[in-house]
Amino acid sequence: MEAVELKNLSKFYKKSRGIENVSLTIHEGEIFGFIGPNGAGKSTTIRTLLNLLQPTGGTATIFGKDIVSDSKEIKKIVGYLPSEVHYYDDMKAIDLLQYSAKFHHYKNTNRIYELAEKLQLDLNRKMEDLSFGNRKKVGIIQAILHEPKLLILDEPTGGLDPLMQNTFFELISKEREKGATIFFSSHILSEVQKMCDRVAIIKDGKLVTVEKVETLIKNSLKKISLTIENGEDVQFPFEGVKDKQTHDKNTTFLYRGDMNVLLNHLATLDIIDVLIQEPSLDEVFMHYYE
User: Fold this and answer.
1) Between β-strands 198-203 and 31-35, what pairing exists: parallel, antiparallel or unpaired?
2) Are residues 106 and 51 in the same domain?
3) What is the rounded distance in angstroms from the CA atom of residue 231 to the CA atom of residue 243?
4) How high is the pLDDT of residue 284?
5) In terms of CB atoms within 10 Å, which of 26, 169, 242, 244 comes out highest?
């Protein structure tokens, strides 16, 4: 059984498009990245999947349960962290988290204090007195507290400083080791590259591709750096060259195509040095968004 399965899932807001015919599968136990800029449809997909928004078309299941008809059962096994967290201002963090534990019939409340210590969160402060980053910490604890089978995290590191981001990723890795499946939405590509097994790219509400992170980087493009003796502006009489930049004797570009064609052409140039690298996920991502 797959952890999550979307089949042509669509959501329209009157005449506006939210998401259209999104189909993907998330395997049980994996960390799955969902990337795209703001407005691409990441949050709409997640909210529809959680039945916070009613789908306009298509279907989706979580551990075989239908997201609409079985919504109540699904919420028992899912932990959700929205991109922006909003709580009752006059509640203390500890009261909110204890309430959340009771809501899920989770009795190991010592876990609240353990998680709060790791995230350096003062549980006795009221929500209205917490910074955005500390509210996000409350949201993280609330999402993972009841040890859900599926964690859905929408832009989870917003507001966290770099050290706390590392702590967060350690917590997520431990949940994965215990068997949790993690659906991780982000526009910070380095996070996705670091954490995820596979990644989906969404653009204008439509899914562009779903690949393993290493496959996406390896098969998409090569990053080429040349040092040329006479500093000439190199021209390429074939397709596949992107983002070419020349400065003095140095030329860099991205290449997708037959490497033999490229190397044969480079052999005609007066080259001092050449470096062929895998591109960063950022560069791959921008290629899809051209």
Assistant:
1) parallel
2) yes
3) 18
4) 72
5) 26
**In angstroms, rounded to a whole number, what is the distance separating the alpha carbons of residues 100 and 80?**
12
Q: Mark whether 212 and 264 lie in a shared domain.
A: no
**Cα first-last separation, the chain:** 36
- Residue 175 shares a structural domain with residue 113: yes
What residue has token string 């960063």?
280
What's the one-letter identity of residue 85? Answer: V
Shared-domain flag, residues 152 and 264: no
Question: 179: phi > 0 → left, psi -120 to 50 → alpha, else beta; which?
Answer: left
Q: Choose the final residue of a domain: 184, 217, 250.
A: 217
User: Are both 227 and 116 inside the same structural domain?
Assistant: no
Give pLDDT, residue 240: 87
Counting the structural domains of the chain, the total is 2
d(CA 106, CA 111) in angstroms, rounded, equals 10
pLDDT reported for residue 83: 86
User: What are the helix (H) ranges across the chain?
Assistant: 42-49, 71-76, 93-103, 110-119, 132-144, 162-177, 189-195, 213-220, 259-266, 281-288
Residues 224/253, Cβ–Cβ less than 8 Å: yes
* 35 and 77 together in one domain: yes
Q: How far apart are CA 34 and CA 183, in angstroms?
A: 7
Tokens 């800029």 belong to residue: 37
CB 183 within 8 A of CB 32: yes
Q: What is the DSSP letter of 100?
A: H
- Does residue 152 contact residue 81 with C-beta atoms inside 8 Å? yes
Same domain as 209, residue 227 = no
Q: Residue 278's domain is classified under what CATH number?
A: 3.30.70
DSSP state of 279: P
> pTM of the full predicted structure?
0.80
